[in-house]
Amino acid sequence: MVRFMASMLARIRALAAFVTTLLFAAIFLIFLFAIFMRYVMQQPVAWADELNIILLLWVMFIAGALVLRDNEHVAFDITWNAAPPKGRRAMGIVSALAFGGLFIAALPGTWSYITFLWRERTTVLEWRLDLVYSCYLVFFIAVIARFGAKLIRLLGPDWRNVVDE
């Protein structure tokens, strides 16, 4: 079962990396198109800026949720690196409980606000904002799952491998 879950997570990570790469390429192409339209054709297109912002938002949250590993995120780890393995384990458990708990506590309000946004639309493209910001829910749930998985691993028999990663 563990191997199956690891295989599924690897596939999801690979798919998310592929999708975010395509989205980033689209951002670049749309940016070039907007420059061409503005400076060569003298006809600026307003939708390009809005679409690029939306695509960047999706790239950022999907990559942060599904592509980047914990050790690839920016971290202030001076205390972590100075601590012995048992100290790292304690810090990891406390941080997983604290941050995971905060994200769990904030999930209903986040869900409520994003679902409330169906009433609002983007300025130019007139896309529903609940769909635009739904990537944040994916990020939120992935963060909760990551902290939960980290907590389980830190409480398990192979906790030394977790603190050495």
Account of the protein in words:
The protein is an all-alpha fold. It has 2 domains: 1-69; 79-165. It has 7 helices and no strands. The mean pLDDT is 92.
In terms of topology, how is this protein built?
Elements: H1 2-40, H2 46-67, H3 78-82, H4 85-116, H5 129-132, H6 134-155, H7 159-164
Helix pairs in contact: 1-2, 2-6, 4-6
Descriptive terms for the model:
about 160 residues; mainly alpha; 7 helices; elongated
Brief description of this entry?
With 165 residues, the protein is an all-alpha fold. The protein has 7 helices and no strands.
Question: What is the overall shape?
Answer: elongated
Measured between the Cα atoms of the first and last residue, the distance is 23 Å
Element order: H for helix, E for strand: HHHHHHH
Mean pLDDT: 92
Decide which structural class fits the backbone.
Answer: mainly alpha
Radius of gyration: 20 Å
Oligomer: single chain
The amount of helix comes to: over 70%
List low-confidence stretches: none
Number of self-contained structural domains: 2
Characterize the main sheet.
none
- Strand tally is 0
Tally of helical segments: 7
Strand content: under 5%
